[in-house]
Design brief:
- A hairpin with a 3-residue loop joins strand 3 and strand 4.
- The protein has helices at residues 19-29, 76-87, 108-111, 113-123, 143-158, 222-227, 243-250; strands spanning 7-11, 33-39, 58-63, 67-72, 94-101, 128-133, 166-172, 180-182, 188-191, 194-198, 204-208, 211-214, 231-237.
- It has one domain: 3-Layer(aba) Sandwich (Stationary-phase Survival Protein Sure Homolog, Chain: A).
- It has 7 helices and 13 strands.
- The radius of gyration is 19 Å and the shape is globular.
- The chain has 254 residues and is an alpha/beta fold.
- It binds manganese (II) ion (MN).
């Protein structure tokens, strides 16, 4: 048996000073040592972007007066790559990303920097979990999201990690914990995304607004279960191949 203490790395996309990352570091500390490597500023909706044209810097700091941390001037995916290759002396046993302020259910998964930090961990061979709370405000009550994180972390550590290629995406409503269920990503999209405006110099500009549209009436989707007041956990994968269509199309010549 490995006698060394479990090491958990915590990242996010809201930045190293967000309340959500402190809440997640607290949950992680119940399971082992914690190191926080996160962007030095808000990086929501950057998806899986990586920085290629400017140097990255990692400033050592202490998070919530307790946890060893590094604030990185890059994206969530940069943070995980840099932690893996350069910042951490020991490989973490688990990578957590969150707790994001805002839902990462449905199509939000694809735009999310929070989920991409976890996915980058998975690509590099770690077990990784993304955790989000549907409420945006910094003062949101993350109690239920913390309990959801606690249960899923325990699930993953108890089974000795996740299979290669799989990331867990957890979402929770604001407030107290009312249960958690396995789910799938709801089919959804944003429509009418940009408001046309005119600046003081009479030039047009566009501001992202967008209405979220749910295209899925299944009762097993993440959004359906969240709307019932429960937390959700969806196994996702970075292999985007559609294997059933590959088989079907593959039998036809081109
Ligand atoms: Mn965010």
């Amino acid at each position: 048996m490995n006698s060394e203490k479990t090491l958990i790395m915590v990242c996010n996309d809201d930045g190293i000073f967000s309340p959500g990352i402190k809440a997640l570091a607290k949950v992680a500390s119940e399971f082992g040592d914690v190191v926080v490597v996160a962007p030095d500023r808000q990086q929501s909706a950057v998806g899986h972007a990586i920085t290629m044209s400017v140097p990255l810097r990692a400033n050592a700091m202490t998070v919530a007066k307790k946890y060893k941390g590094f604030a990185v001037n890059g994206t969530p995916a940069d943070c995980v790559k840099l932690a893996h290759g350069n910042l951490l002396k020991k490989n973490p046993d688990l990578i957590l990303s969150g707790i994001n302020h805002g839902s990462n259910a449905g199509i939000n998964i694809l735009y999310s920097g929070t989920v991409s930090a976890a996915t980058e961990g998975t690509i590099l061979g770690y077990s990784a979990i993304a955790i989000s709370c549907t409420a945006y405000p910094e003062e949101a009550d993350l109690t239920g999201a913390m309990e959801a994180a606690r249960r899923v972390v325990k699930f993953v550590l108890d089974r000795g990690g996740l299979p290669r290629g799989v990331t867990l995406n957890v979402n929770a409503p604001e407030g107290e914990f009312k249960g958690i269920e396995w789910s799938r990503m709801a089919d959804s999209r944003y429509v009418e995304e940009y408001e046309d405006r005119v600046d003081p110099f009479n030039r047009a500009y566009y501001w992202l607004t967008g209405q979220f549209e749910l295209l899925d009436d299944g009762n097993d989707s993440d959004i359906h279960i969240l709307n019932e007041g429960k937390a959700t956990v969806t196994p996702i994968q970075y292999d985007l191949t559609d294997y059933s269509l590959l088989k079907e199309f593959g039998e036809e010549g081109l």
